[in-house]
Amino acid sequence: MIDQINSKISAKDQKIVIVTADFNHEITESLTDGAMDAFLHHDGSERDLTIIHVPGAFEIPSTVVQAINSLQPDAVVTLGAVIRGATPHFDFVAAEAARGISELSKTYDIPIVFGVLTTNNLEQALERAGTKAMNKGWEVMESALKMLSIYQQISIRK
Predict the structure, then answer these.
(1) Would 80 disulfide with which of 41, 51, 116, 156, CB 3.0-4.6 Å?
(2) Which domains, from first to last, does the chain contain?
(3) What is the reported pTM?
(4) Residue of 25, 42, 53, 89 marked catalytic
């Protein structure tokens, strides 16, 4: 018989850290609200949720390291919004945030989920940070909870 591991979504007794960039605050605030709503919707408790605000997406990876080492969460959700402009700044910030978060997700034994929007314009960012049905913050929190379930099931099989 094939051994299958399927994810479950439950925030009950899970300690989650959200690292959110304040740059493009209108967008990231909506993403953070969506992630919080998802956490609470899936039986999470406010006492198990920590939100850390950083200046921009570039600062997310180093803050994730500090949060993991100091707060010892079960999972980390990263949120930000990098919107393309007239200069190459977008490319550098988006690439470094993605690379940094990706490296950390392979380094630590907890889920670290990428929720940094990289859009061509403000309209696209607003669309992705909209209602719960389309809010990427909600979606990323659910991904973190699913991955946490998967990691826990894998560790049981060791």
Answers:
(1) 116
(2) 16-156 (3.40.50.960)
(3) 0.92
(4) 89
